Task: structure prediction
Amino acid sequence: MSTSTNPAEAPPRLKRVLTLWDLILYGIVLIMPIAPVPLFGVAQKLSDGHAVTTILLSMFAMLLTAFSYGRMAAVYPSAGSAYTFVGYGLNPHLGFLAGWAMFLDYLIVPLICTVYGALTVQRLVPGVPYTLLAAAFAGAMTLINLRGIRTTARTNFVLATIMTAVILVFIALALRLLFHQQGWHGVFSTQPFYNPATFRVSSIALGTSLAALTYIGFDGITTLAEDALNPRRNVLLATVSVCLFTGVFGGLQIYLAQRVWPDWHTFPNLETAFMDVTQVVGGKFLFQALAFVLILANLGSGLSGQAGLSRLLFGMGRDNVIPRRFFAYLDPKRNTPSLNIIMIGVIAFLGAIVLNYERAAELINFGAFLAFMGVNAATLREFYLAPSARASRRLFADAIVPVLGIIFCFAIWVSLATPAKILGGCWFVAGAIYDAVKTRGFKDSPARIDFRES
Result:
């Protein structure tokens, strides 16, 4: 009997074309080079003047978790990320809850972009009411997405390049200003890292729980595992490298901002404090340049978040995980899930009125760090505790690293403010109840959330 060699009969596979540098660049664009900028003022307040310390502490937790993500992505390449890793590595029902926690993050992204976008516009036109700006921002995102227009990776790359250019100008001018005013003592100081007059562990923990938002999104690299050359090596290196770059580059931005304006009590507005620092460093032009890129960044991120979540809801509705008639509706003219888009736009506007930037950021971290703990636990089981891993397991890489990841992520998660824990806890309990009802008391397989739709 002859063996067919017809290539048409081979199963379709994605071409592995992405190099390590491609993955790193993708991750940097995904997180954005100015990720810590919106957090600066609030992080300074929560940590009592130690924002850069919180950025670096949260980086350590993220490096441990990035290591776990990279290893699990080599075993389970999927767009589900934490949802898939926890589901396969631990338990399908725990995987569903990890996905449910991620779902909260997807929901908050358009909201937090509306909050910060409206606040930034208000700094340029202070006479316009915040409510009106929030409505305009959420409305603009909704109208654009209803027309079926989505930002592309190329657009995000161009935007990231512009942001990097503005931040590099800020860094150069800040260094020049500090040296001109105080000499080398102004440039190099330990005070942003440790000020004995205000240093308190509880404040640092609270600030770190917010500063961790800087790194949210790094796990998106793992979704490219099937496209990457040598994914077992490159996905792991890329996730760790992106977290390290974000921490060092972002930490430098915050360090200089602290040196230029060390007393957070005097900020006119905590949410947009970094913009005030840029005005001191580079005058009105740099202030307006940063405002411009922040508006574009939040609009682009909000557009992508709203479009991604609308597709995720559409996929869940199509599979009847949630009511099909509403969530699986497609506009016959635009072929867009218009009801989902409108609903998300309304939630973004109402949420922007009810929640400030700090509370919205903490809600994102509530879901994210639950998922991060799950991925670290799944890594521990997959590579150290599972019977199949016993022949090749290594104590440090397979056990100590994920355990430390769990500990540090839990320390950050437990430090979140009480309102975020209450709101996030209600969301998590609702997911557990939903799963219990859909699976007849956890007897059946849980409802599947297909994150490839997002």
